[in-house]
Write a structure and sequence with these properties.
3-stranded parallel beta sheet; mainly alpha; 12 helices; disordered C terminus
Length: 263
C-alpha cells in the first residue's frame, strides 16, 4: 500500500510475468518517488517470465533511473535468462533455523503450543512470513491426500484411492503449484530417510511411519526418477493442464519405477 513500492507478481491462468507488465514497468520507472528518495519495484518469482517479457526488461535492468530499485526474487536462479542474471547483483537469502522461526512465532502469538510452532517452522522451510501465514489445517489435509496418492501410485494395484484423492483435490480447486511444493517436501523427507542423512530433521516429522513405508518401497535410486516425474508435473503447471490429470499421471508413473527396481 506504500506509494513508492510497486509489486509486479506473475499473473493470469499460467502465472507468468508477461510483456504487458514489462511495458508497464518501463513507463512506471519514469515517475519519481512520491515521498521518499527511492521507488522500489518488486518482481517476485522472476523465473516465471516468458522470453518476450524478459527481453522487455533488459533496458530497465541495465540503466534504471537513479531513484529506482528493482528487486527480483526467485527460488530457481538457474531458470532466469543469462541476460537477466548478468544485469543483476545476486543476494542469497538462506532459510532461518527452525528454532529461530519457532521463537518468532511464539513472540507473534501464533500456534497453540510448541509442537505446532515447530511443525509450522519445519514445513515453511525456514521462512518466518510463510510460517506466520500458513493455514496449517489446510496444509495437513492436502498432505494426507498426497501421501495417499503416492502410496497408491507406488503399489500400482488398486487405483480407486488415487482417483478418489485426486478428485477431492480437484473439487477443492487446489492450486497445482501448492501441490508440487508439498510433493517436493515429501520426496525430500523420503530421500532423507533412505539416505540416512544427518542434519536437520524431517520437514513432515509428524508422519514418520508413513514416510518410512513409502521410502522402503522407493529406495534411494528411484527418488531421483520420482523427482524427474515431478518435474514433468511442474511443467504441466505452465501449460495449464488440470491438476487432477497431472496428479494421476504422476502417480501412475511411480508404479513402473518400483517394478524396475525389483527386477
Amino acid at each position: 500500500t506504500h506509494p513508492d513500492v510497486v509489486m509486479l507478481p506473475p499473473n493470469g491462468p499460467l502465472r507468468l510475468f508477461q510483456i504487458e507488465q514489462g511495458r508497464y514497468l518501463k513507463e512506471a520507472l519514469t515517475f519519481v518517488p512520491a515521498g521518499g528518495r527511492k521507488k522500489i519495484f518488486l518482481l517476485p518469482d522472476a523465473d516465471r517470465m516468458d522470453p518476450a517479457a524478459a527481453n522487455s526488461l533488459l533496458k530497465s535492468l541495465e540503466e534504471p533511473p537513479s531513484h529506482a530499485v528493482l528487486a527480483l526474487t526467485t527460488a530457481r536462479e538457474a531458470a532466469l535468462l543469462p541476460t537477466i542474471r548478468s544485469r543483476c547483483v545476486p543476494l542469497w537469502l538462506a532459510p532461518l533455523p527452525r528454532r529461530d522461526v519457532a521463537e518468532f512465532l511464539e513472540r507473534a502469538g501464533v500456534g497453540r503450543d510448541e509442537k505446532e510452532r515447530t511443525l509450522r517452522a519445519a514445513v515453511s522451510q525456514g521462512c518466518p512470513g510463510r510460517a506466520l501465514r500458513l493455514d496449517l489445517e489446510h496444509y495437513l489435509a492436502v498432505r494426507e491426500s498426497l501421501l495417499a496418492i503416492l502410496r497408491a501410485g507406488i503399489e500400482a494395484r488398486n487405483f480407486a484411492e488415487l482417483f478418489a484423492e485426486s478428485q477431492k483435490l480437484a473439487r477443492a480447486k487446489e492450486g497445482l503449484e501448492n501441490l508440487i511444493e508439498v510433493l517436493y517436501s515429501l520426496l525430500q523427507d523420503i530421500l532423507h530417510i533412505e539416505a540416512r542423512a544427518d542434519g536437520e530433521p524431517l520437514r513432515n516429522a509428524d508422519r514418520p511411519e508413513m514416510l518410512q513405508e513409502i521410502a522402503r518401497a522407493f529406495g534411494v535410486d528411484k527418488v531421483a526418477e520420482a523427482a524427474a516425474a515431478l518435474g514433468s508435473l511442474e511443467r504441466n503447471l505452465r501449460r495449464n493442464v488440470p491438476a487432477q490429470i497431472s496428479l494421476e499421471a504422476f502417480a501412475v508413473s511411480l508404479g513402473p519405477v518400483r517394478r524396475k527396481s525389483e527386477r
